[in-house]
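Marked as duplicate of an earlier ticket. Keeping the data here for the record.
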Amino acid sequence: MMSHRIERTALFHKQFKKVQKDPRWRPIFEGIAPLENNTLSAWDYVLVCFFERRPIPEYFYPHELKISNKLKQQIKKRLGIHQNMTIKILELHFDGHNGDHLLVYHDTPAITTMIAIGTHHTIFDQL
């Protein structure tokens, strides 16, 4: 069985370094996600879901982003995906439906690509 890979864009990597240092993100990386029978942080829980190909729980409010075709083309180019392919860009909220700690990603059976991490303001100013 082929293992699942997680890749990061340069934008994600740059943003991740910032959020790791931000005390407002500490609960995401160090706290316990409020899910039944869970001992993991929200960050670790989501990574396990990606690696083990488990569905992301509704608590994280995973949903498709409605973005412009122009932005989709830019993301496809950044990810090295053929322009004619259809892709879904997804977002989840580490701190629940109304939370503002977000991950933007593209998911396939073989690879999850983390595109951006941050708040609504920081992500959508840079995408």
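See parent ticket for discussion. The mean pLDDT is 91.
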